[in-house]
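pipeline stage [seq->struct] | target=Heme exporter protein C | organism=Maricaulis maris | residues=249
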Amino acid sequence: MLSYFSNPQRFDQLARILIPIFGALALVLFGVGVWLAFFNSPPDYQQGETIRIMYVHVPAAYMAMALYAALAVASFVYFVWRHALADTAAEVIAPIGAAFTILALFTGSLWGKPMWGTWWEWDARMTSVLVLLLVYLGYMALRAALDDAQQAARTGAILAMAGILNLVIVKFSVDWWSSLHQPASVIRLDGPTIHSSQLWPLAIMALAYTCLAGWLILYRLRSQALRRRVRALQRRRDHVARQREEAVS
């Protein structure tokens, strides 16, 4: 399938269909999710109204991790099979994932202040998410620092794959070390432990974030593909022009 859609025309056709679908779904889901989360769900019996930060923070943290996993997979596909589309996907995912990570850290600090009495605590979960942001930023900086495009893609892919270790630490940090964060309450083998009045708004907001990320990725992928096509046509035109000049001379 990746080989099929690595064809620029096929990918462009798919992207033109999916971009408005993801955009419309994101708008609808955000509308429903915000209404349920901020106006229709009850306050928490311990945390009160501050629980509403959860509906922004938890999906942001989920997307930060999910997008890094996607970045690592795209990097692996490029590293092994040299698919240009996979490398482009990794390149466009990185800044989007970094933005979600920043949102997760910011809203986590807002939530932590009234609950824990501090904006920041160097516990395992918070520190590993900060490291996740640094890996995102390091990946982008590394690619920007190398002039050779293929070397930048290959070196960036190695860094992205190595960063999977930190992603595992983020996921299991609350289980392996003592942490201010509560253990997983949604994705559990024995089922969610939060009430449905909070679970449904949280799930809808998570879907809204997912559709937003899908829209952003596809939009940027299509833009990058169009830029590469324009550059390829310019190089072809310049090559033809040089050949004509050589023939005339």
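stage status: PASS
auto-comment: The chain is about 80% helix and 0% strand. The mean pLDDT is 91.
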